[in-house]
Amino acid sequence: MDYDVLVVGGGPSGCATARDIAAEGFKVFVAEEHSVVGEPLQCSGFISSRALQLSRVSNRVILNELKGALVYAPDNRILNLVGERIYGVAIDRVAFDQELALQAEAAGAELHSSSRVVHLASIPGGIKARIQKGCSVSTEQEVSCRLVIGADGHSSLVAKWLGLPHPSQKVSIYSAEVELPSTNEQVVEIFLGQWFAPGWFAWVIPTRRGLARVGTGVTKQGAFSAGRPGCARQLFTSLVEAHPDIFKGLRVLKSTGGVLPIGLMAQSYGPHALLVGDAACHTKPISGGGLYLGLEAARLCAEAAVSSLKANDYSSKFLSRYQRDWEGKVGKEISCGFMHREVFLNMSDQEISNIITFLDTPHWRRLILKYADLDYHSILASKLALAPLWAQRFLINGLISFVNGYSRITGKSSKGTAPDGFVE
Ligand SMILES: Cc1cc2nc3c(=O)[nH]c(=O)nc-3n(C[C@H](O)[C@H](O)[C@H](O)COP(=O)(O)OP(=O)(O)OC[C@H]3O[C@@H](n4cnc5c(N)ncnc54)[C@H](O)[C@@H]3O)c2cc1C
Question: Between 20 and 30 A from 240 (CA), which of 91, 150, 312, 329?
Answer without folding.
Answer: 91
